[in-house]
Amino acid sequence: QAPAPVSPTGRDTGAPPDARAQDGAYLTTAQGVRLYDTAHSLKAGARGPVLLQDHHLREKIMHFDHERIPERVVHARGTGAHGVFQSYGNAAPVTRAAFLAEGAETRVFVRFSTVQGSRGSADTVRDTRGFAVKFYTEEGNFDLVGNNIPVFFIQDAIKFPDVVHAVKPEPVREIPQAQSAHDTFWDFVSIHTEAQHHTMWLMSGRGIPHTYRTMEGFGVNTFRLVAHDGATTLVKFFWKPRLGTHSLVWEEAQLIAGADPDFHRRDLYDAIEAGALPQWELGIQTFPDTEDQMFHGIDLLDPTKFVPEELAPVQPVGLLTLTGTPTNFFAEVEQVAFHPGHLVPGIDVSNDPLLQGRLFSYLDTQLTRLGGPNFPQIPVNRPHVPVNDMLRDGFHQDAVHVGNASHYKPNSIDGGCPFTIGADGGGYVEVPEPVAASVKERRAPESFDDHFSQARMFWLSMTPLEQEQIVQAYTFELGKCYEQAVKERQLLALANIDPELCRLVAQGLGLPAPEATIPLADDVVVSPSLSMIGKAWPT
Ligand code: HEM
What we know:
With 539 residues, the protein is α+β, with helices and mostly antiparallel strands. Helix content is 24%, strand content 15%. It contains twelve helices and twelve strands. The strands form two sheets. Strands 1, 2, 3, 4, 5, 6, 7, 8, 11 and 12 form a ten-stranded antiparallel sheet that branches. The protein is globular, with a radius of gyration of 26 Å. The structure holds protoporphyrin IX containing FE. Protoporphyrin IX containing FE binds at residues 72-75, 78, 111, 113, 130, 132, 145-147, 152, 157, 160, 220-221, 303, 336-338, 354, 357-358, 361-362, 365-366, 369.
């Protein structure tokens, strides 16, 4: 195999080699015919008109006309890097995943992103950030598709189109909601009050991270680990930056968005090229896999809830180091396809209804975004292990499959091909789970009903400086709403979180502060680990 391409400073980027790209000393057509001129079209005389028979002109313009693919429907704006993950081995008792075994080293590709903006939007806007990691493990690809905020807007994936419509540019003026005219965003989060917890994180410094290098990551949804003996444990994943967690302040974020809209991607690229390799520790919180899947009264299947580190410490299980910048942004950052259902033996999904919807969505969107069903063959998506599937033909099929009966299994003709091999041979086996006695119920469990106490926990866990910034953020963003009723409904939600927070924001907006309509949670755990002040991960 040819060596992997290297970054401008000569580091190995880990990008799969592709011998067909830009091979040979001469410029050619796509058919490999050498060109003698690519700057003049074929004309009748020197002054034209241009001749239709100019194949090079038609091929060159045709290809250019089709250079764009659809941007991601969410997380369109992002950047990425190659790296390596080194396992400490201490997760081995709870998971049989080979990449978490002692001494295992695994190549990764990481993509950081904003959620709401288009591909050309600014980096330092107030938004959630994506933190997606593809591990090319010896058992196939595992994707940890997380965010920089540990809770999500909604509890059920069926609302995802609604929340995304509410934050994307509104249909009349095409103005993005999360950044300027804010009515639909605040309308959504004040009606769907489960979004209040995520919104509170967004109004804090977490919504304007300083750099990608200083950002925590969270797998958000609860997953299930499976040990060698079949024992299961519920788990939440964390990324802890070695440099600590830091944010911008709002004035910086706005100035930088104007002066250098590429600030975050430039920072990541420059840091890696300068040899200041960014590092994160992968951490896990583990919980007993009980029948009710609750922990200290927190429903582990509710993705708007978070388990404070004071109740379940985060245990570091490995180290991620980003070692190489992309060789080609389109080939790697734009074409990478993450999916929370890309799992390896030892890791399984839970019944979190948000996660369950995600399992459908990513594959579905990539079918359109990447032009057909063969995107796993794109170099950045290829597993670093042999692939022997029964997927055939289709648009952009790159593989030349051999044999007359390798495309169905089992068969009695192509005897050399392995059948499925079961768990003993390293096969992926799902964990069987009991289901409720009644099926087909369109409702959430009662344990999903509390929408305010964890937002209150976050607010009470902040230092005075962080609280001041949160008040300013709510006041600034709500101040952009045209609809009075939306502002008033959001103030009511704040009253149900904390009366003082509500009073300060109402004062800033010049509106009366409403009374809470539900009793305030008086037993919340104040969690100093949620504050970013002085927060550095011990190494
Ligand atoms: C993309 C995270 C919920 C649908 C992404 C990306 C991340 C992410 C990091 C960007 C991947 C990349 O860099 O290419 C999350 C997290 C969620 C969540 C942490 C909540 C726990 C959802 C839900 C849906 C969804 C509920 C739909 C039901 C999508 C889609 C994309 C995407 C369609 C674009 C994928 C592509 O074009 O390749 N998500 N997401 N996400 N997400 Fe989610």
